[in-house]
C-alpha cells in the first residue's frame, strides 16, 4: 500500500473506532416520563391525602409524572372542570379515575368522559370510580351492558352497585402469569370495602379477571357469611381496544399507602400505557429515576 493511502486508511480506522467507542459509552436516550392525569375528589374518601400518596408511590416506582385534577367538593355530585372540555384528555398517556361521583348522571357529561377512552386514551380506575356515574341505578339491579346508561360500566368492564361493612379482604391473584400480577403475592388487607359484582363479568367481552377478594362479614343475628367478588381486572374497550385496568380496593389511606397496593397500581398504569414487560417490570426507559 502506498504511504498516502496507508495514512488515509489508518485515519479512517481511528475515526471509526472513536465513533464506536463514543456510541458504546453514550447512555441510551432517556424515555420521556409517562404523563398521567390523576382525577380525585368527591364523596367519602380522603382524596387530599390519597392523591399525594399515589403520586409519590407511582413516581418512585416508574418513570411517571403525575398531574392532578382535584376538587375539594366532598359531595356525591362533584364537578370536574376538566371534563367540560371536549379534548380533556389530550396529551396524557394514561388517566387515573379516582373520583367518587355516584350521583353525577348528566349523560352528555358522562359521555364526554368516556369518549376519551373510546378514542384510545388508556384508563386506570380505582375504588369508588366503580360506583360513579350511576345513571339508572337501583340497589341490587344491574344495568344492561351496551345501554346508554351503562356506558361508564362498559368502559370499566365490570358493574358494581354496593359494598358491605369494612372487614379485611383476602386477595387471591387468579391469573399469576399476567404481567400486572406476575410475582405478586396474595395478601390480606386491613378493614376495607368489598365491592359486589352485580353483573356477571362474563357479560363484558373485554373483561379479564386478575384477582378476587374474600371477606367474612357479620349478619345482624351474629352469624357470619362469606362474600366473594372480582376485585382486580383488565378490560379491552371500544373500537380501538383501549387498555383499561381497575381495582375496587383502596378505601383507606393505610391501604393506599401499602407497598403491595402501590406496586399493583404502578403495574396497572404501565400496562395500560403499553410500558410493562412480560416479567412485570417497567419497559426499558420507564424504570424509576435514579436518585
TrEMBL record:
Signal peptide: 1-28
InterPro entries for the chain: Class_I_gatase-like, ThuA-like
Ranges where the ThuA-like domain occurs: 35-272
Keywords of the record: Signal
Name of the protein in its database record: Trehalose utilization protein
Originating organism: Roseimicrobium gellanilyticum
Amino acid at each position: 500500500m502506498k504511504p498516502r493511502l496507508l495514512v488515509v486508511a489508518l485515519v479512517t480506522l481511528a475515526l471509526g473506532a472513536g465513533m464506536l467507542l463514543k456510541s458504546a459509552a453514550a447512555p441510551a436516550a432517556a424515555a420521556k416520563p409517562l404523563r398521567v392525569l390523576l382525577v380525585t375528589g368527591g364523596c367519602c374518601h380522603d382524596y387530599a391525602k390519597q392523591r399525594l400518596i399515589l403520586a409519590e408511590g407511582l413516581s418512585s416506582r416508574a418513570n411517571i409524572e403525575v398531574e392532578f385534577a382535584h376538587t375539594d367538593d366532598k359531595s356525591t355530585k362533584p364537578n370536574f372542570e376538566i371534563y367540560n372540555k371536549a379534548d380533556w384528555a389530550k396529551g396524557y398517556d394514561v388517566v387515573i379515575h379516582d373520583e367518587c361521583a355516584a350521583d353525577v348522571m348528566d349523560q352528555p357529561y358522562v359521555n364526554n368522559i368516556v369518549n376519551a377512552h373510546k378514542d384510545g386514551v388508556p384508563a386506570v380506575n380505582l375504588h369508588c370510580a366503580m360506583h360513579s356515574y350511576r345513571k339508572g341505578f337501583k340497589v341490587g339491579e344491574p344495568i344492561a351492558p351496551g345501554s346508554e346508561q351503562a356506558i361508564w360500566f362498559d368502559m370499566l368492564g365490570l358493574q358494581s352497585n354496593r359494598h358491605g361493612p369494612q372487614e379485611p379482604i383476602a386477595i387471591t391473584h387468579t391469573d399469576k402469569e399476567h404481567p400486572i400480577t406476575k410475582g405478586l403475592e396474595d395478601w390480606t388487607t386491613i378493614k376495607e370495602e368489598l365491592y359486589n359484582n352485580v353483573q356477571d363479568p362474563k357479560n363484558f367481552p373485554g373483561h379479564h379477571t386478575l384477582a378476587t377478594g374474600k371477606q367474612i362479614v357479620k349478619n345482624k343475628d351474629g352469624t357470619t357469611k362469606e362474600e366473594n367478588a372480582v376485585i382486580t381486572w383488565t378490560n379491552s374497550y371500544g373500537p380501538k381496544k383501549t387498555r383499561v385496568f381497575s381495582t375496587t380496593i383502596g378505601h383507606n389511606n393505610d391501604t393506599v399507602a401499602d407497598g403491595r397496593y402501590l406496586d399493583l397500581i404502578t403495574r396497572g398504569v404501565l400496562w395500560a400505557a403499553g410500558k410493562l414487560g412480560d416479567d412485570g417490570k417497567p419497559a426499558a426507559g420507564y424504570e424509576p429515576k435514579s436518585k
